[in-house]
Design goal:
Length: 387
């Protein structure tokens, strides 16, 4: 009789699909881990991006949380250094016992932590990089990474095709960060060269560089009419100012990390007409998600200078994180988070994204961009969604 009762209990346990509780989850809280550059070459973003994420997490928490649990985000510093990213990830997982990782910034830092994601089978939601390598199924831990943004490779190809559409005889150059970020940019450049039978001039720079006079001079000597910049914030500003000082005025175009409105403003007259790709609607657009962002920002009393693309990026990727948690259900485990993310189909985040979908063999998220141009200190969409 006792054996029968034990069998029934065991069978019920198996039938309900109960799993061992994951770290970082209690009845009232979900602890997630974020790794940002707080003191390195992109330290300005280390405050701006998580601030935007917390705007949305706080909004969710104030409205009851996710299935009754409030979200708490812990942040570690990697100084935009892949080795330090590994140490930060281990600290968050082993010591802080986070449930999952979220929004880790930088292509090379994310690539460096793939073995850790694989070892712990811990998901990384919305890494803060647009590299197409994030959804590459040939790489370690691909099942653990849910990418939100259109890949740098696709962006580069789209920008080349835009330039050729404007001028079939365009002489195109690219200045790129010589690491995993730049590698993905060059993948798209190579695909565009092969498709259109052209040759694109390449000029690389090291992460954290501040002098681009040699690269700009080479592009000038090469007669480039269009120059694609694969950098972040400081690099396009310096590149465009350096070009202006040399009386070199090609049409500058940027991969999406360069599209923050402050880039063109800081570049001054040299930034007039700068065109950049973007994977989402603008932060000051009329779509529902952007309106909510501005309302919550105003309510928070935050310094106005924080508002913009990178702050909005933190906000909208937090929306993706919450959507996955909601779909994971009350029984929150890492496996159920993966299942929940895989159930996201044709989701646009209150109109912010073109469309995000995942599946058992799909981690790419969005596949389209819009082009944004700076005119007289303001940004304007100049295209429909492109892919």
């Amino acid at each position: 009789m006792k054996k029968t009762a034990l069998f029934i209990i065991f069978a019920a346990f198996i039938w309900t699909g109960c799993e061992k509780p994951s770290p970082g989850v209690s009845d009232s809280e979900i602890v997630i881990g974020n790794i940002q550059d707080l003191s390195g070459p992109m330290k300005e973003l280390g405050m701006v991006v998580p601030h935007g994420s917390n705007l949305y997490f706080n909004y969710i928490n104030e409205n009851g949380g996710v299935h009754g649990r409030k979200i708490k985000m812990l942040i570690e510093d990697h100084q935009y250094n892949p080795q330090k990213s590994v140490a930060a990830a281990k600290k968050l997982i082993d010591q802080s016992q986070v449930f999952c990782l979220y929004n880790v910034i930088g292509t090379s830092p994310v690539e460096a932590i793939r073995p850790i994601l694989d070892e712990y089978q811990i998901p990384l939601i919305a890494p803060a990089t647009q590299s197409g390598s994030m959804s590459d199924r040939t790489r370690k831990a691909w099942k653990m990474i849910f990418h939100t943004d259109t890949g740098y490779d696709k962006q580069a190809r789209i920008l080349v095709e835009y330039a050729l559409g404007e001028n079939p005889d365009a002489k195109i150059g690219v200045i790129y960060q010589d690491d995993d970020y730049g590698e993905n940019v060059l993948k798209g450049i190579g695909e565009a060269e092969k498709k259109h039978g052209i040759e694109i001039q390449r000029e690389g720079f090291q992460r954290g560089a501040t002098d681009f006079s040699g690269q700009v001079m080479n592009l000038l000597k090469g007669g480039c009419t269009h120059v694609i910049i694969g950098g972040v914030v400081k690099e396009p500003i310096i590149v465009m100012k350096t070009a202006a000082a040399m009386n070199f005025a090609p049409q500058f175009l940027g991969i999406s990390p360069t599209m923050d409105h402050r880039v063109a403003i800081a570049a001054g007259p040299a930034g007039e007409g700068f065109i950049a790709a973007n994977f989402a609607q603008l932060w000051n657009s009329d779509v529902e998600g952007a309106v909510l962002y501005r309302e919550l920002f105003a309510k928070s009393g935050s310094p106005e200078q924080l508002m913009g693309m990178y702050n909005f990026y933190g906000f909208i990727t937090a929306m993706v994180m919450v959507e996955g948690l909601e779909r994971a259900g009350k029984n929150l485990t890492r496996k159920n988070l993966i299942r929940g993310m895989e159930n996201i189909k044709n989701w646009n985040g209150m109109g912010v994204f073109p469309s995000i979908s995942y599946g058992p063999r799909d981690r790419a998220g969005s596949e389209s961009v819009v082009l944004v141009q700076a005119k007289e200190g303001k940004q304007k969409l100049i295209s429909e969604w492109m892919d």
